[in-house]
Amino acid sequence: MITINLLPSAQTRPVSLYTAAVGQLMAAGREALQANAFIERAQQILEKLPEATPFAARIQGFIARLTDLSSDDSYSPEAAEALLKRLRHRDADLSLIPGCEHLEPIGHGGFSTVYRGLDLETGGLVAVKVGQLVQVDEDKKRILTLDTLRRVFDEEWNALSRIDSPRVVKPIRRGVTDRGKPYIVTEYLPGGTVSQWARLREACGLFDMRTTFYMAMQMVEAVAASHASGIVHGDIKLSQFLLTAKDAPKLADFNLSTSAGADSERARRNWSGTPGRRSVETKESPRKDVYGLGVALYELFTGKELERPKDRADLKASLGNLYRLLSVVQEIRPPSEARPERRIHKGIDRILLKALKPAPGDRYPNAAAMLEDLRKLERLLNRRRSKRDADA
Predict the structure, then answer these.
(1) What does the alpha-carbon distance between residue 381 and residue 392 come to, in Å, rounded to a whole number?
(2) What is the DSSP letter of 307?
(3) CA angle 158, 185, 187 (to 5 degrees)
C-alpha cells in the first residue's frame, strides 16, 4: 500500500510535485492493481496536486487513458506500465536544464520549442528555447543533425551576446540537455508579440497614428542595434518582436542571424527566412533586414499583408535573371492609399517604400539610416503639433 504524501508548501516546486506523483503512480503500478483500484489511487494522487499546476493536466490525461482501457476490458499491468513510461518521459529534456523549473510550452519555431519557466536563482520567469530535430513530413527524414543544431544555437547565442541593447532580448545562459539538444535561456517577455498587438488593435478599431509610429521607431531601433554590432538578423517580421508588460518591443529569435559576410550555418544551409518577408538578393547584408522592416512596418501601419506577386509562372520564368525577377514584382500601394481612413502621413509612405525597393542599392544601407529618417519625421510632426497647440 502506498502513502499519499504530496502536500505542497510555499517552497515546493511544481516539477517536484509532478515527479513525486509519477513516482507514486509507478509504485501503484508495480502492485499490479486492477483497473478500478489503480484509477482510484491515481485520483487520490491527483487531488494532492495544486489545480493550477500545469503538470496536473498530464495526470488527468493518464487517468482518462486508464479509464478507456478499463471500459473496453483491455486493461493489463503491461498496458498501464506503457502509459506510465510515456508520462514519466514527457518533456524529459526540460527536467534536465539546470536552474530552471519548466511550466509550459509557449511557442514553436522551425527547429525549436520555446517554454516559459521559473529561474530558481532569481525566482523570476524566463524563456527557454530548446532545439528540435526538423523532419520532412513525406519520409520523416531528418534534415538537421544534432551537430548542425548545436552550431545554429551557438550562432544565435553569439549574436545575442554581442548586442548590448534594451531593445533586444537579454540572454542568460545556454547549455545542452543529456539528450544532446541545445538550449538557450533568455529573459521572459509577457506582452506577446507585436503581431498579436497589431491584430488586436485592428480588431478593436484602436489604430492611433502616434502610438503606431513610436512602436515602429522602437522596432527600427532594435534592428539598428543589431546592425551596429555587425549582426544581420535575417528574418525580420512582426512576430519576432516581443513585448514587455509596458508594450515596449524587443527583437528576438536570432536563429537565422549571421555576421555580415561570415560563413554562417544559415548561409551554408541556404536558410533564407520567412517567405514573403525577405528580399531576393543572396548576399548577407543589413539591407536584407531593411527590406524585412519595410514589410513588417507596412503591415503594422495598414493592418494588411503586403501584396505579393500572384503569377507564380512569371516568377518561375524569371528565376534565371535577378533583374527580370525584380521587374515582375507588383507595384506597392503606399500605406496612405492602402488605408486612407487612417490618415497615414506621406512621410511614412516615403520611408517604407524606400525600404521596400527591389534593388538592394536603392534601399537604406542599414536600419540606422532608416531610423534617422524616422527621427526627422518625428521632429517635423512634433513641430506641427506644437504649432497647432499654440494656435488653439
Answers:
(1) 16
(2) P
(3) 100
For helices 14-30 and 35-47, the axis angle rounded to 10 degrees is: 160
Cell numbers that stand for 252 in this block? 528576438
Largest alpha-carbon pair distance within the chain? Answer: 86
- How many residues comprise the chain? 392
Q: Which three cell numbers stand for residue 64?
A: 482518462
Most confident of 86-90, 118-122, 188-192, 220-224: 220-224
Q: How many CB atoms lie within 10 A of CB 41?
A: 21
pLDDT digits (tens, 9 = 90+) for 237-258: 999 999 999 999 999 999 888 7
Question: How many other C-beta atoms are found inside a 10 Å radius of the C-beta of residue 247?
Answer: 14
pTM summary value: 0.71
Provide the H-helix boundaries in the chain.
14-30, 35-47, 56-71, 77-89, 146-162, 194-204, 209-228, 265-269, 286-302, 312-318, 322-327, 335-338, 346-355, 367-391
Cα(260)–Cα(333) distance, integer angstroms: 31
Mapped onto helix, strand or coil, the DSSP state of residue 103 is strand
pLDDT single digits (tens) 148-191: 889 999 999 999 999 999 999 999 999 988 778 899 999 999 99
CA distance 155 to 88: 33
DSSP string, 240-298: GEEE-TT--EEE---TT-EETT---HHHHHT---STTSS-S--S--HHHHHHHHHHHHH
Contacts 24+ apart (CB under 8 A), 329-335: 329/358, 332/298, 332/306, 332/307, 332/356, 333/307, 335/298, 335/301, 335/302
The model's pLDDT over 42-64, given as tens digits with 9 standing for 90+, comes to 787 777 766 545 566 667 777 77
- DSSP 3-state assignment of 131? strand
Start-end of H helices in 55-188:
56-71, 77-89, 146-162
- Residues whose CB falls within 8 Å of the CB of residue 283, separated by 6 or more in sequence, listed in order: 360
* Strand-pair category, 182-187 with 171-176: antiparallel
